[in-house]
Amino acid sequence: MQALIDILQKNALTPREDIARMLDLSVEQVQAEIARLEKEGIILGYQAIVNHNKWDTDSVTAVIEVKITPERDGGFDRIAARIAKFEEVQACYLMSGGYDLLIVLEARNLRAVAAFVAEKLSTVEAVQSTATHFRLKTYKENGAFHQVELTPERLAVTP
Amino acid sequence: MSIRIADTVREIPRSGIRDFFEVVQTMGDVISLGIGEPDFATPWHIREAAIYSLEKGRTGYTSNLGLPRLRRTISDYVYNHFHVRYEPLSEVLVSIGVSEAIDIALRALLNPGDEVLYHEPCYVSYAPSITLAGGVARAIPTYAEDNFILKAEAIEKAITPKTRVLMLNFPTNPTGAAMPPEELEEIAAVCIKHDIVVLTDEIYSELTYDGKQHFSIAAVPGMKERTVLLHGVSKAYAMTGWRIGFVCAPVELIEAMMKIHQYSILCASIMGQEAAVEALERGEQSMVSMRREYELRRNYIVRGFNDLGLECFRPRGAFYVFPKISTMGLSSREFSLRLLREKKVAVVPGSAFGPSGEGHVRCSYATALDQIKIAIERIGEFCEELRVSEAAA
């Protein structure tokens, strides 16, 4: 049901009646399919994309590159899971290349980020090193632009 | 003094779409399903490629036939999508959209009085282009009951000793019809039998739905040598304003068309040609995602009209639906004008696409879904009011 997932990923609030028409299904079928995707954990949740240029909460977003010594049993997974459990961690990815984990962190302020890195992250035994970068401005997030482009004018009727 | 206008031009009616457009322009706040172009801007990577070529100072004329690089790209693209191989440097011409290509192809082919067959309802320029080229336009009506496809028998019946050309446009503007390969093969056999040249406008070929592959008549054995294949980047790559089309045809016909093209146009704009290279070489993914979006909207709008009690054929391609409105007791023009005035929704009267389009209106689903949704609601209200007033009368 890739088409259904595409629609929900673009706009999870699309009315179910509209989805039914677009996919040529009944509303009940759409509801059942969404329920199934949710139940099976294929759809994990729905979130709003907030424009932080307009809704300034003084919070700080940082991305942190982390180098890790993998464990004999379980490789990176156990350590990654442990780091991911911290509430401030918004995302955590295993990466190829110069470092191992990429963490997206959201914290109240700079000090909170510093504290997280110094006290929580660096003290994890397998962590070799970290490099922290702060977000300055957002241009695009989850496929949505933060500065809305004006729609170009079209002629009202064309052949 | 009054300036005398040439008879042929004076006698050609203005496009019904243009008339309608002028009414729409006087009104604000209209939701338009009248637009025959994608609502997407050209994909960014294509725009970016054009900007890059401008930065490099590539701003001159090109060869009359078009940039050799673009012609090679077209040749490969046509081979991959239509399974016909054209020699890039002698059998391909880059034109100002398919519109110019139709004009020069007809002018290169017709002697005064030669007859040209085309299926109707059809794109607004066909009959006038034939007349302007000195030919005689002969429409073959197609019907909703047949899913608006063209039947070989109908062609056979319309053929006279003066018939020289058959024009095809599948998927069709305004009906969204597409031809099954076996029907096209039958048409090909008729054309070979009667020695007719086929002018096939396949501008909507990428936009075919339900997972179906487009099939070109040029790919039927024995047809390449009598087919003029017209295509371009406008619809599939959302590039209408760039004005880039192309023609693939036998070398002697390209030569003839090139003579007209070089004296009247010289060449298509280089920026557009550079952008077209990017579109055809690397635009597949953007095109597929736009097509996916159109298909969802098509499903939405077809169900919407049928739910309103306006019978609507499920189009196989392009981005138009052509619902039947004759049950509402108004001509397509009256229906469209009143819908516009009373509900501020613009659709195009079917009669603009020839007499056999009467009884229908064309609605484009190259329009954002939220707009389509409001439009359908308003059309629903309009029809309800019509039914009520008819019952009262």
Q: What are the main properties of this structure?
A:
heterodimer; A: 159 residues; alpha+beta; Alpha-Beta Plaits; 2 domains; four-stranded antiparallel β-sheet; two-stranded antiparallel ribbon; 5 helices; extended; B: 393 residues; alpha/beta; Aspartate Aminotransferase, domain 1; Aspartate Aminotransferase, domain 2; seven-stranded mixed β-sheet; three-stranded antiparallel β-sheet; 13 helices; globular
What does this entry look like structurally?
The complex is a heterodimer of chains A (159) and B (393). With 159 residues, chain A is of the alpha+beta class. Chain A folds into two domains: 2-39; 60-137, Lrp/AsnC effector binding domain/regulation of amino acid metabolism (RAM) domain (Alpha-Beta Plaits). Chain A has helices spanning 2-10, 16-23, 27-39, 77-84, 110-121, and strands at 60-68, 89-94, 101-107, 127-134, 140-141, 144-145. In chain A, β2 and β3 (101-107) form a beta hairpin. Chain B folds into two domains: 7-42 and 285-392, Aspartate Aminotransferase, domain 1 (Alpha-Beta Complex); 44-282, Aspartate Aminotransferase, domain 2 (3-Layer(aba) Sandwich), CATH 3.40.640.10. Chain B contains 13 helices and twelve strands. The radius of gyration of chain B is 21 Å and the shape is globular. Chains A and B meet through α1 and α2 of A and α2 and α11 of B.
Low-confidence stretches of chain A: none
Treating each run of at least 4 consecutive H or I residues as one helix, how many helices of chain B?
Answer: 13
CATH architectural category of the largest domain in chain A: 2-Layer Sandwich
CATH superfamily of the largest domain in chain A, called what? Lrp/AsnC effector binding domain/regulation of amino acid metabolism (RAM) domain
Record the strand order, biggest sheet of chain A.
2-3-1-4
Give the CA-based shape of chain B.
Answer: globular
Quick recap of the structure?
With 159 residues, chain A is an alpha+beta fold. Helix content of chain A is 31%, strand content 21%.
